[in-house]
Amino acid sequence: MRNADKRALYKHFRIEIIEDVYRHKFEQLFDRCCFACYAPPPLELDHHIPARAGGRLVPGNIILLCPSCNNRKGSMPPSEFYSPAQNARAKRLFEQQVSLFEFTFDWAQWEADPLAYLLCVGVTPEAAQAFLAAQHCAETEDGITIVMK
Fold this sequence. Notes:
Layout: H1 2-11, H2 16-29, E1 44-47, E2 62-65, H3 67-73, H4 78-81, H5 84-100, H6 107-112, H7 114-120, H8 125-134, E3 137-139, E4 145-147
Antiparallel strand pairs: 1-2, 3-4
Helix pairs in contact: 2-5, 7-8
């Protein structure tokens, strides 16, 4: 279930370079550090409400933890692992991450002008140019082929 949830989490971004932009935005919500101890990367996606308690790896239930904190948390409920202040902070982050993952790939904008679309969603000009130069066609995870003009 966890791997399926993780694939589904980023699937709707359609193109890896856009996924990378939104993954970075997600990490920025946590200041690119562990939610529990503020350690720097590497970081792991974790269920706030554990899978064992019915939690899914979906927007509104994802915490970034360092491997050590993720291992210590295990399947503990949030109230046993985090302080009340941390749980209040998590609630605010969940609201922000839900809106972040409401992204919908706009095929019309993509087909009209791929470069403008990549820039519109936050890809840097240099990365967008490099991506487009390297791509003539690409197949997305769900089998859709994107042909570059």
